Amino acid sequence: MSETALIEIGIGETRALVLDGEIVVEAHVERDDGGLRAGDLWAARLAKILVPGVRGIVLAGDAEALLEPLPPGLTEGALVRVEVVREAIPEAGRLRLAKVAARAGAIRGPGRISHGPDLVARLHARRLPVTETSGYGADRLEEAGWSETLEAATTGHKAFSHGLLTISPTPAMTVIDIDGAAALEVLALSAADAAAAAIRCFDITGSIGIDFPTVADKGVRTRIGELLDAALPKPFERTAVNGFGFVQIVRPRQRASLVELLRATPVASAALALLRAGERAVGAGDRVVTAAPPVIDWLTARADLTEELERRCGARVRLQADAALATAAGHVATIPR
């Protein structure tokens, strides 16, 4: 069955699902936070040399990025033409800097030279049939399984026919653990397809470790590898499945996975979900957004987002903090004036 894409250009973020029939095979969220995007070209300024001839920090607009390797003869304060090859990666307690590489070409002054492709452009470039949805009418994303997919990415728990995947991002790699009550060989073989599907669905890239059940039969371990080879998005490299059931996969990395993004930004994720709910709220009257204080503080600091919600729904937006609410437990009500 041919794949199709649903795209929703929301307030503060763009959301998308890729579907194979009625099955969600990919889920994407791209934030409109002004950060460096993979494929951007910049005339950046070298702010600091970290290791001479090896790496340094550049300023691309207001954002810092890691330049590696350093072009010969480049000195601190000089301009250099760079391409963003990996976006910043949110991690617990810190943000791993975006990574850039020097590119040949003219420089007329500091600043952005060109934009890298956004989520919409990347999906169109794959020549998928694309449907762009809006905040009005039927909620096509929700009907296709948006909330369930985000819940799985947020918790890291993804059920499959014979068990459960637990997906855990770490600074070194994303680890996928497998649990289930089936016979070890059955569990391991069914988990191979499930893990590959999760890697694609949540756009997990970089270094990935899958901890399969220990299977003594080398032929079964070989079959696990063959299933991964057939199902994983290319390109990738992997090790053999060792005697303890562990396999390491490396996929090219340009941005954070959906799991990493949602895990590292719970307040922003909750706030943006409320803006989506506010856009879809029905009835005449003010939109009252009630949420935990950190969520309200996040929205208050970004007045442009609530102003956009007012523009889209044609109503005034009021923010109301409730310390009794959990981060993700906010809600939107329509209150007649």
UniProtKB/TrEMBL annotation:
Q: Which UniProt keywords apply?
A: Hydrolase, RNA-binding
- Source domain of life: Bacteria
InterPro entries per the UniProt record, alphabetical = RNA-bd_AU-1/RNase_E/G
Report the residue ranges that make up the RNA-binding protein AU-1/Ribonuclease E/G domain in this protein: 161-253
Name of the protein in its database record = Ribonuclease
Identify the taxonomic lineage of the organism of origin.
Bacteria, Pseudomonadati, Pseudomonadota, Alphaproteobacteria, Sphingomonadales
